[in-house]
Input
Amino acid sequence: MKSGAMSQTNAHLRQVANALIAATNAFDVKHALSLFAHDAVIDDPSTGHRFDGHDGIRNYIEQYFIGYHTVTRFLSMKRLGYNRACVRVDFTGDFGHEIGKLEITVNAKGLIAQVDADLE
Output
């Protein structure tokens, strides 16, 4: 792969991560859902649950971001493949403070297909 294509993908993955963080920090469920494919999955062992499709993802955002007044801050990103990255984030909210990882996979349309989320 040419370095230009590689850095464009890095930029896109970072844009997706930034957009997701901005939407959840604004408690904007509609915008957050627009970033996900309709059949996307969030798997979050720290909650003990997997969230399927837009209905599940809406529940996840409402319960764990809006419900706990969670604010997320980007810390770093490591590329895991052409369409996948691990984003390290700082979470604060009614629960206190945690550092987490979001392994984000995007599909060919640039929408989030899967997030594997967990706390460090």
Q: What stands out?
A: The chain has three helices and six strands. The longest strand covers residues 71-81. The radius of gyration is 14 Å. Residues 3-119 form a domain with the Nuclear Transport Factor 2; Chain: A, fold (CATH 3.10.450.50).
